[in-house]
Amino acid sequence: MLHRTTTNRQNGVQDGAQTAQGGLFPSSRQPASRILVASVEPFALWAHRWGRLDAAAAMPSHPAGGATTAPATAPAAGASREATGAAPPGAAPEAAPPSAPLACSEDGRTVTYADASARAAGVQTGMTVAGAWQRAPSLTILTAGGPEVDAAWEAFLDGMHDVSPRVAAVRLGVVAFAGDAHDAAAFAERAGARVGGAGTVEEAHLLAYLAEPGRAVVAAAGEDPWTRLDPAPVYLLGGAGLSSAQRERLAWLGVDTVGALRRWTPAQLLAFLGDEGRALTPVLHGPRIDRVPVRPPPVVVAADHAFDDAACEPAEIDPVLGRLVAQAAEALGQRSAERVRVLVSSGGLRSDATRRAKAPLRDPVRLLRLARLALSDTGLVPLGVDELRLELSGLARRAEAGELWAQRRRRAEAARAVHARFPNQARRFALHDPGALRPRLRWRLLDLASGDPLPWDGPAPRDGTAPNRTVRDRTVPDKAAPGEAAPDRAAPQDGTDGDVRVPALHR
């Protein structure tokens, strides 16, 4: 999470302390002095190309192309959408377009973004998916979001610890981290991302759109980044929330550069652009974010295995993967895992894949199923597996309603204490007749230990006097017949105990 602050960045944090073997940077670098923002193209496409997103993320109505394998120095993967509309702001044509055209869709009906190969085949942003397949039958359309993309994005952020300990997600597909110009160039080259560097996150984000894929644009210390941003076209603000409809409205007013729009006051931006103007105000006028917080390393449960010889057959790999899952599941204890990550090393190449469960799991059988799918997503099994590593992340402990069960336990302990001190004296009420008008007939008094019914005269009157249950029985005549004894008022003859009265008849 990013924090807006005006204080200086904290020193003394060693960047790259979590650097793994084959990472981008050594662990002895000095703390960075600039804020870098890396922007990848629509993240589902980026992850699919780098082997971080499997074919399950593709549209089910069209066969998905195979994913390529990441090089050994590629950062941990993720997938996300970077821009909505045509090409991202400031994007340049890819220098080496992939052989298979790729496109991205948010709703599954229209094309949100198409890469260079797809655009060369006639696929345009906004056309239907069916029309895109007619123009490019080999087109692979990936969904812009979903569990696979979210899991890949989380893995990407976790892998950013190899670059810098100060990492924060600006949004899906855009990440801010601390570094210098060398770090920006190295990361852009390794990941094929656009990287911008400045003193604040917003300025670095806009500078990233000025860079080509695989390049970095970093403002030097003491340089005003707005000297580069003011002459830039206004569509550069598309990544900051300015829609194409609002850009068209601004074109009618002659506002075609970022500097022309920056001369507007915040009140004018809000009045003309509405909510989009409110989102652009921090970018153009501040307050801006000038510090990237330290991202804690992920808490993972890991198990690994090294093969003596490269294993290619499932009969060799599957038992080892099952043992790793069993070890990791045992180490979970009472916790559950949300993401399963498998890392494979083969002939100097490293690749990883992440699968996200629909619900937190700790069942070894289900974890093994996800691990097998993630292993297949890495794409290195046919080349032979030298090392295999399993990581479970997204750990959580199952929540319990402690107060509810604690109250029940305390009530049982109190009942046992009452029985021990006053044997056979505890009572409880049970509902007997919900439709009865008298409380003594509606409820029944029971012994708490045995459950046997007990005699009960009903609740005491509110004035504190003893209840009077002697009721005049109007069904019995006031006077006895000649030669007969007077009826007993204390014991009614109808067996109702004097509680049932005949209602008076009104003429």
Number of helices: 15
Distance between the termini: 81 Å
Supply the helix-strand structural class: alpha+beta
- Quantity of strands, as a count: 16
Which strand-content bin applies to the residues? Answer: 15-25%
Describe the main β-sheet briefly.
5 strands, mixed
Instruction: Describe the global form.
Output: extended
The average pLDDT is 74
Q: Identify the strand order in the major beta sheet.
A: 5-6-1-7-8
Rg is 37 Å
Extract low-pLDDT stretches.
Answer: 3-32, 53-98, 470-476, 494-507
Percent of residues in helices comes to: 25-40%
Explain briefly what this protein structure is.
The chain has 507 residues and is of the alpha+beta class. It has helices spanning 43-49, 116-120, 129-135, 147-159, 181-191, 201-210, 226-229, 244-252, 258-262, 266-273, 275-284, 314-332, 364-378, 402-421, 439-442, and strands at 34-39, 102-105, 113-114, 140-143, 167-171, 174-179, 194-198, 216-218, 301-311, 335-346, 349-361, 385-393, 396-397, 427-431, 443-447, 453-454. β15 and β16 form a beta hairpin.
Output the keywords.
single chain, 507 residues, alpha+beta, five-stranded mixed sheet, five-stranded antiparallel sheet, extended, disordered N terminus, disordered C terminus
Q: Care to describe what's here?
A:
The protein is α+β, with helices and mostly antiparallel strands. It contains 15 helices and 16 strands. The protein has helices at residues 43-49, 116-120, 129-135, 147-159, 181-191, 201-210, 226-229, 244-252, 258-262, 266-273, 275-284, 314-332, 364-378, 402-421, 439-442; strands at residues 34-39, 102-105, 113-114, 140-143, 167-171, 174-179, 194-198, 216-218, 301-311, 335-346, 349-361, 385-393, 396-397, 427-431, 443-447, 453-454. Residues 3-32, 53-98, 470-476 and 494-507 have low confidence and may be disordered.
